[in-house]
Amino acid sequence: MHRRLSLLLVLGLSACQAPSSKAPAAPAGPAAGASTSAPRESPAPMSHGEAPIGAAMTAPDRAADAPAPGGSHHRYIRFVTAHVKHQVAPGAVYEAWTFDSMVPGPTVRLSVGDTVDFTLVNGGNIPHSMDFHAAELAPDRAYRNVMPNDSIHFQFIARVPGAFMYHCGTAPVAAHIANGMYGALIVDPRTPRPPAQEFVLVQSEFYMGAPAGADSSRSMDWDKVLNAFPDYVVFNGVASRYATHPIPVDVAKPIRLFVVNAGPNRISSFHVVGAIFDRVLADGFGRPFEGMQTWNVPVGGGAVFELRLAEPGLYPFVTHAFADATKGAVGVFRAGNPGQAAKP
Ligand SMILES: [Cu+2]
C-alpha cells in the first residue's frame, strides 16, 4: 500500500514538473508577450480600461451571483475531482485539475452552526485532497490524500463567519492550486447580513507551458509557478470575463462582494473604480473598516466588501497591482443605464 502511495506521489510530482523538463515554454498570454514597451492603445476608453468592455447584456457562462443565504443546517456536500480542459482566455485552453469539473469549484454558503457532511471522491489519476479553511480539524485525519478512485468523508461545524477559501492540500500545494483546485465557502453570521446584491469573486493565477496536442492545450509551467510569474490573473477562472460581460447592478443600492484570493502567489489589492467601500470586513468577520479605497486580500484569505455605486455607469473592479489587472484580473459593474448619469 505504501509502495503504491509512493508511486502515485512520484507520478503526481512528475506530472507537475513535466513542463519544466522540456525546452522553455512559448508565451501563453499577455504576461509573456516578450514586449519591452507598454502598449499605446487602451482596450477601453475609460479609467482602468484594462480589457474591452462588452456591450452585450447577456450573462456570462458563469455568473458571479452569490448563492442565496439560508437553507438546511445540515449540509451534505459531495465533490468529485476531475481533470478537464478549461478555457482561461481566447486561445488559452488549460489542462485543469478541478472540483466538480469547474474552476473555481462550486461556491458553498452556510450559516454559523451548520454541520457540513462532506465527501470527496477522487476521479483523477493522481492523489488529491480537501482543505476547508472554514473548518477546524486535524489535517492528518480529514485533509489526507485520497487515492484515485477512492474517497474520504468527514464532518465539521462552521463556527466562524467569513469568506473562506477551500482547496486541494496535496503537495506540492502550489501545483494543485495553480491547476485549479480551489473555491469559496461563505459562512453567514447567526444574525443575517442586511439584504444586498451579492457576488462572489475568486481571484487566482494560471501559469502556462507551451501548447501541445491536437487542441493546443497547455499544462502548468512549474518554473513560472515557483517564480510567481503568471500568464493570467483572473476572477472566477476566466480572464476579463466580467469586462466582456459586465455584471448588472442597481444604482445606489447596497452591493456585497465576497472576495477570496486563491493565489497561489499573488496578493489581491482589491479596488472598485469610482467607489469607496462603505465597509470592509477582513476575512469577512469582526469589526469593519469604514471608508476604504483598496483592501489587500491575502493569498489564502478572503474579505467582504460593502459598497454602493453613486450614479449610472460602468465601474471596473480590479486588483490594483496593475500587472495582474493587465493579465486579466479586471471586471466591470454596469450600474443602471450607463450614459444617463446626472450632470453635475
Ligand atoms: Cu489536488
What do you see in this structure?
- The chain has 344 residues and is mainly beta.
- The chain is built from 6 helices and 19 strands.
- The strands form 4 sheets. The protein has a 6-stranded mixed beta sheet.
- The chain is globular, with a radius of gyration of 20 Å.
- Mean pLDDT is 89; it is low at 1-27.
- Bound molecules: copper (II) ion.
- Copper (II) ion binds next to loops.
Architecture blueprint of SSEs:
Elements: H1 2-17, E1 74-89, E2 92-99, E3 108-111, E4 115-122, E5 131-132, H2 139-142, E6 151-157, E7 162-167, H3 173-178, E8 182-188, E9 197-206, H4 222-226, E10 232-235, H5 241-244, E11 247-249, E12 255-263, E13 268-272, E14 277-282, E15 289-292, E16 294-297, E17 301-307, E18 313-319, H6 322-326, E19 330-335
Parallel strand pairs: 1-4, 3-8, 9-12, 11-19
Antiparallel strand pairs: 1-2, 4-6, 5-7, 7-8, 9-10, 12-17, 13-16, 13-18, 14-15, 14-17, 18-19
Jot down its keywords.
disordered N terminus, mainly beta, 36% strand, 6 helices
What's the quick description here?
This protein has helices spanning 2-17, 139-142, 173-178, 222-226, 241-244, 322-326, and strands spanning 74-89, 92-99, 108-111, 115-122, 131-132, 151-157, 162-167, 182-188, 197-206, 232-235, 247-249, 255-263, 268-272, 277-282, 289-292, 294-297, 301-307, 313-319, 330-335. It has 344 residues and is mainly beta. The N and C termini lie far apart (73 Å).
